[in-house]
Write a structure and sequence with these properties.
alpha+beta, 3 domains, 16 helices, 16 strands
Length: 473
């Protein structure tokens, strides 16, 4: 029986081959391109990699400037020292990063993906290495199609060796942010690496080699969740890489001297160079697609073709849906950046950044935890006085040793019967036992609220007041 024709306006029925589980992935041979956007991509490659590979070697106050010391449970970021108790700042940093990503995406699409995402950056580096050894697009395609030979084996081996070196150095640098990089280098040279260091160097190196060397666009298409939910952050006023269909269609080849307007053709010469340079292998002329990472390689390529044909640039350009429909210029596009969505993202982001900066500025580099000694809740000592024993954890968060004075308030005639001065080395926690005494009639029977005050000598602005309970039998 013949299948009924679909109703007008209904979705087209596409037959599914029962013996095919998934579409075979075709290798993408991205063509090299130059231009203003390609230059900006390489600027970001250099900036991010100098920052990543170089920051771990910078020293600050005699130690590594950025170090996430998991063993000592201390994070060093330039002049700041963060402890597990400061997890609040990590949460704020994640919120700021998410809101910034939302704001940039609402304004200008996937800028992060196209220029600063590690997957994009390392793919760009690995593709440069590939071109260095195997040549440009046509040479790589010819080499892959050729039978195995000594030349092909040598080129492929040299390329992969370079990739592996980059991957291992990346893994080494990554581990160097969690263990001092100079200590790690000494352990590598002397073959004294620990098992977890070996694992993470190899794991991160393998991931870099595999993702940037083989998977490439598949990470962006299938593994990265950002490609899937970016649509909810786009609107008709979001800047995206667009093809001007009204100007370019109907496309077709022609000679440079021909009058394509008289022949009823658009500006697109259908050279497919925009597809050849795309690192994810899409055709931007088919409209916005979730695979597009906004790298703008197609813009650079198309502008070069337009220059050769003596046509105006911008057949493929950064624009918005409204701008294409209404034929807006740059001024109208910029004027529509400030809209409810971006104003909301910007306001919330600014408020959180200001609050976080204020919290860091007034942050006191001292924390105190008061723990009661449960082995001796309360006891009577000479003179009939009642004594409670406490243990104070004094955390000196500054990068200099300090002496702290202890005092206690909250009840009449309270006094500390033990050492009142405690010395704490830089960025260290010191545990100290404190004996507090009071008269039997200084308060009510049972628990009484008292306060420990810890003040840094010669730094009056560094002080902490913590509450505790004094027990009277």
């Amino acid at each position: 029986m013949a299948e009924p024709a679909p109703r007008q306006g209904s979705a087209k029925i596409i037959p599914i081959k029962e013996d095919v589980l998934y579409e075979a992935q075709k290798k993408i041979y991205a063509r090299s391109v130059s231009g203003i956007f390609a230059t900006w991509r390489w600027i970001f490659v250099w900036f991010t990699q100098i920052l990543f590979y170089g920051l771990c070697w910078v020293e600050w106050n005699g130690r590594q400037a950025v170090l996430f010391d998991l063993v000592e449970r201390k994070f060093y970021i330039l002049g700041l020292v963060f402890w597990p108790q400061d997890v609040f700042y990590l949460a704020v940093l994640l919120i700021i990063s998410a809101l910034a990503l939302f704001l940039f995406t609402a304004v200008a699409g996937r800028l992060f993906c196209g220029y600063a995402c590690p997957q994009t950056v390392y793919t760009e580096i690995f593709m440069w290495v590939e071109k260095l050894f195997e040549g440009d697009r046509a040479a790589r395609m010819k080499l892959d199609a050729a039978p195995m030979s000594a030349r092909k084996l040598g080129l492929k081996s040299a390329k992969h060796l370079a990739w592996i070196v980059i991957g291992l150095w990346t893994g080494f640098t990554f581990v160097g942010y969690f263990t001092p990089i100079r200590t790690l280098m000494h352990e590598v040279v002397s073959w004294q690496l620990g098992p977890w260091q070996i694992f993470w160097i190899l794991f991160y190196g393998f991931a870099t080699w595999g993702n940037a060397g083989f998977m490439r666009e598949q990470v962006c298409k299938y593994m990265c969740p950002y490609a899937r939910f970016q649509g909810v952050m786009f609107d008709p006023d979001t800047l995206i890489v667009t093809y001007d269909t009204e100007r370019g269609e109907p496309r077709g080849s022609r000679s440079k001297k021909s009058d394509h307007k008289a022949a009823g053709k658009g500006d697109c010469v259908d050279c497919s160079i925009c597809v050849q340079v795309c690192p994810v292998g899409i055709d931007i002329r088919e409209g916005l697609q979730y695979e597009c990472i906004g790298c703008s390689a197609c813009i650079d390529a198309c502008d070069q073709v337009m220059d050769k044909m003596s046509y105006p640039r911008g057949l493929i350009r950064y624009s918005t849906e409204h701008a294409l429909k209404e034929h807006w210029g740059a001024r109208e596009i910029v004027r529509h950046i400030a809209r409810p969505r971006t104003l909301l993202y910007g306001s919330v982001l600014s408020a959180i950044v200001i609050a976080a900066a204020w919290a860091l500025a007034v942050r006191v580099p001292l924390k105190v935890d008061v723990i009661r000694d449960r082995a001796a809740l309360a006891r009577e000592v000479e003179g009939g006085r009642i004594e409670n024993l406490f243990r104070l954890q004094v955390m000196n968060m500054a990068e200099e040793p300090r002496r702290f004075a202890l005092s206690v308030t909250g009840m009449d005639a309270l006094q500390i019967a033990s050492e009142r001065i405690v010395e704490v080395p830089a960025a260290t926690t010191q545990s100290v036992s404190v004996r507090v005494r009071a008269e039997p009639d200084a308060g009510k029977r049972g628990s009484n609220r008292i306060y420990f005050e810890v003040r840094a000598l010669n730094h009056d602005d560094v002080n902490v007041r913590e509450k505790a309970s004094f027990l009277l039998p």
